[in-house]
């Protein structure tokens, strides 16, 4: 009987050791994390489809053109004196315009920000899964990127 108890203790220790060694995999494959990743990927794909079929409006292009046509950050600041939006968005756009003149880059950047926001909301909000889905594909979050 004593031999069986010792063997059982050794087996339990080895199982605990194995669990600790692969515990880093638990985070990636937890049910909630996998579900949230799927939600964000679906949001990202549908948002990308929406962006590629979206005609940009004048107010969207105005922000892009102000950032594109500013020669420096000081010039950008001076060009924003009659704009009602905060300067941070324009600073991001100014940085993007240094790599490309295509306004699609602004839309993709906005999609990236929106997807990150959806991830944070889905991960840390106290709502049910149904409420998270309804919010994610609701009017304000989903249509703000299109």
Describe the 3D structure:
With 146 residues, the protein is mainly alpha-helical. It has helices at 2-21, 23-29, 31-52, 58-69, 73-79, 87-97, 104-124, 129-136, 139-143. The mean pLDDT is 85.
Name some characteristics of this structure:
single chain, 146 residues, mainly alpha, 9 helices, elongated
- Residue-averaged pLDDT, rounded? 85
Biggest beta sheet attributes: none
Report the order of strands and helices: HHHHHHHHH
What is the helix fraction of residues, given as a range?
over 70%
Shape: elongated
Report the uncertain regions. Answer: none
Helix/sheet category: mainly alpha
- How far apart are the termini? 70 Å
Beta-strand content estimate? under 5%
- Give me the number of helical elements: 9
The tally of beta strands, per DSSP, is 0
Give the radius of gyration. Answer: 24 Å
Give the helices and strands, then pairings:
Blueprint: H1 2-21, H2 23-29, H3 31-52, H4 58-69, H5 73-79, H6 87-97, H7 104-124, H8 129-136, H9 139-143
Short description:
The chain is mainly α and 146 residues long. It has helices spanning 2-21, 23-29, 31-52, 58-69, 73-79, 87-97, 104-124, 129-136, 139-143.
């Amino acid at each position: 009987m004593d031999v069986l108890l010792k063997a059982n203790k050794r087996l339990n220790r080895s199982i605990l050791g194995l669990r600790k060694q692969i515990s880093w995999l638990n985070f990636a494959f937890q049910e909630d994390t996998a579900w949230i990743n799927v939600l964000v990927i679906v949001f990202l794909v549908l948002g990308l489809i929406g962006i590629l079929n979206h005609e940009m409006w004048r107010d969207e292009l105005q922000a892009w053109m102000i950032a594109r046509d500013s020669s420096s950050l000081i010039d950008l600041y001076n060009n924003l004196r009659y704009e009602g939006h905060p300067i941070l968005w324009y600073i991001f756009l100014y940085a993007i315009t240094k790599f490309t003149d295509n306004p699609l880059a602004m839309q993709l950047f906005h999609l990236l920000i929106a997807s990150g926001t959806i991830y944070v909301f889905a991960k840390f909000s106290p709502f049910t899964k149904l409420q998270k889905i309804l919010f994610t594909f609701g009017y304000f979050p989903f249509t703000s990127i299109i």
